[in-house]
């Protein structure tokens, strides 16, 4: 059966996810209960504390001089040094960490910076070679799960974001105009979801595998497309685009019940923006 290319791909996907699950098993709250997970060394504890509190000299010295430091270690909440530094808006520490080859969870760091509106940290992370060519900006965490790396945390403990979220979708949700502009200049765009009745292999597979996640991803995409930040910066005629989206969502509200309550929200804020400014 594995001779079928589709079966080979699915088998590889399941195998990869299973291995990632094993690798992530000692992360997050497991550190409080798992003997393996609780074995942070004194050096690692000191390093994570320094990153969390923005102790630049200590972080720099440990990164440059220590031969035994695992700079990707995580605390009992599943956060690594990069996530701790970004979450506490320590730009200098973030820049020091980004210089290290093999740094994990860069994608989670970017999403965290976007959610908090830390523009300078967003710019620093986007300057990392991992974002060369803009490919990473176009893919969600779910779409990148087949990559054998730790660019995103694949467990629920390490990330607080939905797995269908991309950086520009999150920036649009948060109405972060400056960050949306930065991402647009990097080539990031929000793809409009396929028609509800689309029968392409991708849509059929997503609907069959997890209809809830598929519906949620459509909601997140339309919410981002309808945001004032994205509409005003990405469209030559934002008002016309908003009206077209409004008509599309009104049609979808008769098909997908999830859109009945949510579809007017983005447009009301968008038109308020034009009335005020």
TrEMBL record:
This is Transient receptor ion channel domain-containing protein. Keywords: ANK repeat, Ion channel, Ion transport, Repeat, Transport. ANK repeats lie at residues 163-195. GO terms for biological process: regulation of cytosolic calcium ion concentration; single fertilization. InterPro entries: Ankyrin_rpt, Ankyrin_rpt-contain_sf, TRP_dom, TRPC_channel. SMART domains: ANK, TRP_2. GO terms for cellular component: cation channel complex; plasma membrane. It comes from Haplochromis burtoni. Residues 198-260 form the Transient receptor ion channel domain. GO terms for molecular function: inositol 1,4,5 trisphosphate binding; store-operated calcium channel activity.
